[in-house]
Amino acid sequence: MHNLAIYGFGGVGRAVLAQALPHFTLALVADRSGYVVGPLSNERWLAVAAAKAQGTTLASLPEGTSGDWRAALPAGCLVADTTAEANAAQLVELVAQGQRLALANKKPLCDDLNLFQALVGERRTRYEATVGAGLPIVVTTNLLRDSGDQVQRIEGCLSGTLGFLLSSIEQGKPYSSAVREAKALGWTEPDPRDDLGGVDVARKALILARTLGYQWNLSDIAIEPLYPAEFADLSIAEFMAQLEQLDAGYAQRQAEAVAQGQTLRYVASITPDGARIGLQAVANDSPLGSLKGPDNLVAWTTKRYQERPLVVRGPGAGVEVTASAVLFDLLALC
Fold first, then answer.
1. Is 9 labelled as part of a ligand binding site?
2. Rounded CA separation 288/282 (Å)
3. Is pTM beyond 0.85 here?
4. pLDDT for 185 beyond 90
5. Which residue positions are annotated as catalytic (predicted)?
6. Which of 62, 69, 65 is nearest to 47 (CA)?
7. Would you say residue 237 has pLDDT above 90?
8. CB-based burial label for 71 (10 Å; 0-12, 13-18, 19+)
9. Which residue, of 44, 132, 134, 182, has the fewest CB within 10 Å?
10. What pLDDT does 293 receive?
11. In a shared domain, residues 115 and 200
12. 292 pLDDT above the threshold of 90
């Protein structure tokens, strides 16, 4: 079996371990503190994962070592990166050394364009989990491109958090109540503006655009946040306390959409002319309009799928489905 290293040992990394054990020889797992290197029995690897889930750092375990985990990698090892680090340069070094990568980490793919091309140029890096968790979005985009189809537009709702928010507003809840509920459910970052700002959606759109060959950077994408600019510098507590000021504006925009037989969605749109991320009124009977709750949806309009776009829809987040996409990529790299 092929050797596998997992960098990033949070929920997704531990789920990758559990799903990958029947298919790979686990060489090491690493977090910011250090790493644990094999060989270990499957039972012991699962015990390491359980200890990490309880808050133990890997370096503090009996088998743990501090230091740079990359120095312990076997030659030709597969590497799963489930962190959220801006580590593109380090990953490029691994590719240059002959390692193959499966990423759940979006940030390296949104770094400098030259680093992106160095990562993916020889197809030694796969990244299905970065856009739609377990949904086959990147592989579908690659299939359309590689088969010679002409992708004219990609549109999608790529945030479960913002899908929940707008479905709540559609049902008549005030913006402020919907944001607080999403935060209480753990569906937002500790600072909800990290979701409401749209940057995470923009990163996903940039990954798809670069997959199609567009030589864009994140700064080339127009992003409409779901809060006004003057709210950006508030503390989290101040931001949460002033949410009611935004209720009337979003209620009015929803009412205007309803009057036209439409509803509001937070949409990423990619065409050869550019990309835009923001609030959009869409027809109720369209694929985007029919979307409810935290599900994600992507629609490709192409030369071959002109009258009826190709649509993928389903859960766009979740530990197990994200790990399954990483496993899919690892198996494809073998």
1. yes
2. 7
3. yes
4. no
5. 204 (proton donor)
6. 62
7. yes
8. exposed
9. 44
10. 85
11. no
12. no
Told to judge if 107 belongs to the known catalytic residues of this protein, a careful annotator would answer: no
- Distance of alpha carbon 206 from alpha carbon 200, whole angstroms: 10
* Pair 48, 40: CB distance under 8 Å: yes
Q: Which of 52, 107, 183, 204 is catalytic?
A: 204
Q: What percent of the chain has pLDDT over 90?
A: 93
Answer yes or no: do 196 and 95 share one domain. Answer: no
User: Stretch 48-53: mean pLDDT, rounded?
Assistant: 97
Query: Do 86 and 107 form a contact (C-beta atoms < 8 A)?
Result: yes
- For residue 256, what are the contacts with CB-CB under 8 A and spacing of at least 6? 281
Q: For residue 293, what are the CA distances in angstroms to 50, 176, 236, 297?
A: 32, 17, 25, 11
The reply to whether 7 and 147 lie within a common domain is no
**Residue 239 is labelled as binding a ligand:** no
Its domain, for residue 260, covers 142-315
Say if residue 12 carries a ligand binding annotation. Answer: yes
Which of 15, 73, 71, 70 lies closest to 45, judged by CA?
Answer: 15
Give the H/E segment covering residue 116: helix 113-120
Q: List Cα–Cα distances, 9 to 28, 182, 258, in angstroms.
A: 11, 25, 45
Task: Clarify whether residues 84 and 119 are in a common domain.
Answer: yes
